[in-house]
Amino acid sequence: MQLAYDTLLKLNSVSKMEMNFFLQCVRYQDEHRRVIGVYYKEFMQILGMKSKQTFYNVLRSLSEKNLLSYTQNVKGDFDIYLENRTFSQQKTPDYIDLNKVLFQSKEFLCYLQIMKHCLC
After folding, report:
1. Are strands 68-74 and 95-97 parallel, antiparallel or unpaired?
2. CA 75 to CA 92: how far, in whole Å?
3. pLDDT recorded at residue 28
């Protein structure tokens, strides 16, 4: 699970839910930066979303910010392609390894939100 440094800089303008959604996609991405078969109810449960409209709003917003693109296969099932150049695709490797326990903790996600408000 790798997050390119360039992509990290783009995440400065996203909401907490968008950040959590994107990081969840990074966790599930394959070697081609794809997340195949994303079912909206599963992501809603994982991320604590209250309505499916929130899922659709976050997906559309991240797409508009050029952080991901997606296609809908059947109702509620999506294939997501991340705009996240990973280590193997960079000329000069510059990435953050998100497999560390620190980055998967709730405390870290809360810290990101606090820092986002301090830097604005």
Report:
1. unpaired
2. 40
3. 87
Q: Extract the tokens encoding 7.
A: 């992509």
What six digits make up the tokens of 24?
């969840």
| Residue 81: pLDDT over 50 | yes
User: How many CB atoms are closer than 10 A to CB 77?
Assistant: 13
DSSP 116: H
- Whose tokens are 């917003």? That residue is 61
CA distance 68 to 33: 10
| Assigned token pair, 55 | 């899922």
Residue 113 and residue 19: Cα distance in Å, rounded? 9
Question: How many residues in total does the chain contain?
Answer: 120
pLDDT tens digits for range 26-38: 888 888 889 999 9
Cα angle: 101, vertex 107, 110; to 5 degrees: 130
The pLDDT tens digits for 42-63 are 999 999 999 999 999 999 999 9
